[in-house]
Specification:
Two copies of one chain form a homodimer. The first copy, chain A, is of the alpha/beta class. In chain A, strands 1-13-9-7-5-6 form a six-stranded parallel β-sheet. A three-stranded parallel β-sheet of chain A has the order 3-2-4, with helices on both faces. In chain A, strands 8-12 form a two-stranded parallel sheet. In chain A, strand 5, helix 7 and strand 6 form a beta-alpha-beta unit.
Chain lengths: ~280, ~280
């Protein structure tokens, strides 16, 4: 039974892209237009990550009176900044802001989170573009450990655009890391265990601590845990996944939380940044 | 057991949109840059359909020496024609033509086949846009007969962008005509009958005559046959679906071929045309 650690995957990806970064010159824009605590924690970790690799993070964190025009002006500035190759728009956003309009204003070639329609469409068409890092990371971690998805019964739990749906599209591409039979389950699925118990590979992106137990899965199965859930354990806040690794000996492999998909996701975000920098012509 | 005839569905849709057509003024552009016989037959049927509803069809059918620049100039002309609200680009195209560049040149708001990245991305995001008619028709035909997909085990066979993948995304939307658990099978699926035999609703878009038999499906199942296959029968060319309706009494319902999804697809194409006309602001 193999634990699919994210760290070596991350390190390999970083080693492939880091030479393209101009330290002290390259910048990233991060919009945190919320007072949501989790988003703030995430923003802080992203600033730290980009800074570590020599990319200056311009964190825009307006107070609760932020106006739509101010935000759009900031995006416009980032769009036109020749040394800034990536923009992240954290969720949620203050209620008075029109998120769709803000996303629309973002240049497609700086959309390193792959949230714009044009990039999602390119994903559908299997054209070059910037794709959602979490979905990409879920495939990359398997690839790194030589686990192919071709012909496998892959069950994805969760139907968000940037995880469940994007992952389904990725796994349907041609090739050894595609060609999967995919099933997408969600809150309206009747008897979800009936699907996951037959799966060769389970991708869980529900966001509920311990929703599944490893013992729900069949012998030889692989699970990729995309959930990141904060729970209290003995008075301490700890991060756990969607799957409780109760009995894992019958599995072929699984990704831990923390230290699995999330770790790789950051590396993919950085790779998207570098792709945006190297290929300015993907602008749709 | 109900036969889900396309005709009443088509008639209802047409009745909802026909008043928005300005007869003798509205136009559609159809590019047939191929000498492929099936494409020519299809083009002819499309010209007939649009003409019937008062829309003048401008069929561009260059010979085998067609140059990329000529085609792009034609698209540009259509893009700028204020009375032309829809453009169809038939496949295949002559080998010397760059299909991707031609699709790119098309205005998003005249893309009534929903083949551009921006429209496919809007489909993923569940935003307003122009979506592939065959995928939409497959859901509309069920809706017309009061068959909801919510909570159902829906198995889609075929993974093309404009049918299989688009249909999967449609069936994952929120609502009674979404909220399905979807599985996408294709040529690399291991033991495909194992999936379809459990399905509540089977959508087949393989394009192989009689690939399934109705008796492969469980009691109470519904099948939506998206295949359009030309075969010889007693020396005559006839059109059949992917499913051979051998024994259908145990089913709840099925769509015939011809006269099922294909019939509704034309109506959706016309509806897309009218939507393009009424909502010029969807331009991405």
């Amino acid at each position: 039974m193999i634990i699919l650690e994210g760290k070596p995957v991350k390190e390999k990806i970083i080693s492939e892209v880091k030479d393209y970064i101009d330290e002290g010159k390259d910048k990233v824009g991060i919009l945190l237009a919320t007072d949501n605590r989790s988003a703030a924690v995430y923003a802080k970790s992203q600033v730290k990550m980009f800074t570590k690799y020599g990319i200056e993070a311009d964190l825009c964190n307006p107070d609760g009176n932020a106006k739509q025009e101010e935000i759009l002006a900031k995006i416009e500035k980032w769009n036109n900044d020749e040394n800034l190759y990536g923009i992240m728009l954290l969720s949620p956003m203050y209620r008075q802001l029109n998120r769709n309009k803000i996303v629309e204003s973002l240049r497609p070639d700086k959309d390193i989170e792959g949230i714009k329609a044009i990039n999602l469409g390119k994903l559908m068409l299997n054209e070059k573009g910037l794709f959602p890092p979490t979905a990409v990371a879920s495939v990359e971690i398997l690839k790194h450990y030589g686990i192919e998805t071709e012909g496998k019964n892959c069950v994805i739990v969760g139907r968000s655009v940037i995880v469940g749906k994007s992952l389904a599209v990725l796994l349907l591409r041609y090739g050894k890391m595609g060609n999967a039979t995919i099933t997408v389950c969600h809150s309206k699925t009747v008897d979800i265990v009936n699907y996951v118990k037959r799966a060769d590979i389970i991708f869980s992106a529900i966001g509920r601590a311990g929703y599944f137990k490893a013992s729900d899965f069949k012998r030889g199965a692989i699970y990729v845990d995309i959930g990141i859930n904060v729970v209290e354990e003995n008075g301490k806040r700890v991060i756990v996944g969607d799957v409780e690794p109760d009995e894992v000996e019958h599995l072929y492999a699984y990704t831990p939380v923390p230290g699995g998909v999330g770790t790789v996701t950051n590396a993919i975000l950085l790779r998207n940044y570098v792709e945006s920098k190297r290929r300015k012509d993907i602008n749709g």
